[in-house]
Amino acid sequence: MTVQPQPLPVPALPRGGVTAMLGKRARDWLPAVGVLVAGIGLWQGFVKGLGVQRFLLPAPSAIWTAFSGNQAQLWHEGWVTFQEAVGGFGIGCTAGIVFAVVVARWNLLGSALMPYAIAANAIPIIAFAPITNAWFDPLTKTSKMVIAAVLCFFPVFVNAVRGLRSVRPAQIELMRSYAVGELTVFRLVRVPTALPFLFTALRVASVLAMIGAIVSEYYGGSLDTLGANILQDASLFQFEKAWAEIMIASFLGLGFYLAVALLERIATRWQPRVEMVGA
């Protein structure tokens, strides 16, 4: 006997439909926008009022001027780095999910591999950047993707395993009372339970991917990337341009994070969010 999946309930839209929902979302962001504007104003006043040297902290107005004068170059650098981050994110998260499925399916294998996964996470992964440049062509994106992938792997792996193992025993017993196979149990029970854990890890991994890509670029490679140009501009005392590149990295990282968060809302709107573990 097989059990057919039941359609998940879809939350009703608030009164006023999509417009009201978007208006509510906009109001939720107003405090954050206010803090951002106030922070930039305080930053500008602090630098100008105390005469802070530009090599310590440039004024936001100077950073904006550097950004405006180099937009095409900055966005090109950001796009190259973003490609490395997305590639590493995809590789690391895919590997983490695959390993998590294997470990969650076979407990003995999981008990044997989990200590090594935890030990590997304690290694400073960024220190491998010069080694990956030796393994792969440093002028290609591959070596940077490897570093980003390794940083993304562990949080996704640990949280996916936790989610797959968080199913209540009563649910498993109910499914087995209907003589449901393990594959169906996995698809209908374990995967939906694991989704909130997985997306929490994916949000963190999206930030780690950008960090890994940028820092790995410090160790050599193409010169049309954010990491290489931040290092070069800081060495040439072009601090405003270096901060403009940091601003581009922040925009791209935030956009990446929000894209994953939006996908999470679509895929798990029927479950509450959970906090990430093991990261």
How much of the sequence lies in strands comes to under 5%
Described by strand count, sense and barrel closure, the largest sheet is:
none
CA radius of gyration is: 23 Å
Helix content: over 70%
Distance between the termini: 41 Å
How do the helices and strands follow one another from N- to C-terminus? HHHHHHHHHH
Average pLDDT reading: 78
Overall 3D shape: globular
Stretches where pLDDT is under 50 for at least 5 consecutive residues are: 1-14
- How many beta-strand segments? 0
Tell me the structural class. mainly alpha
Could you give a short description of this structure?
By secondary structure, the protein is mostly helical. 74% of the residues lie in helices and 0% in strands. It is built from ten helices and no strands.
How would you describe the overall organization of this protein?
This protein is mostly helical. The chain has ten helices and no strands. The radius of gyration is 23 Å and the shape is globular. It starts with 16 loop residues before the first helix and ends in a 12-residue tail after the last helix.
Mind sketching the topology for me?
Layout: H1 17-50, H2 60-69, H3 71-105, H4 107-121, H5 129-135, H6 142-164, H7 169-177, H8 182-216, H9 226-235, H10 239-267
Helix pairs in contact: 2-10, 3-4, 3-6, 3-8, 3-10, 5-6, 6-8, 8-10, 9-10
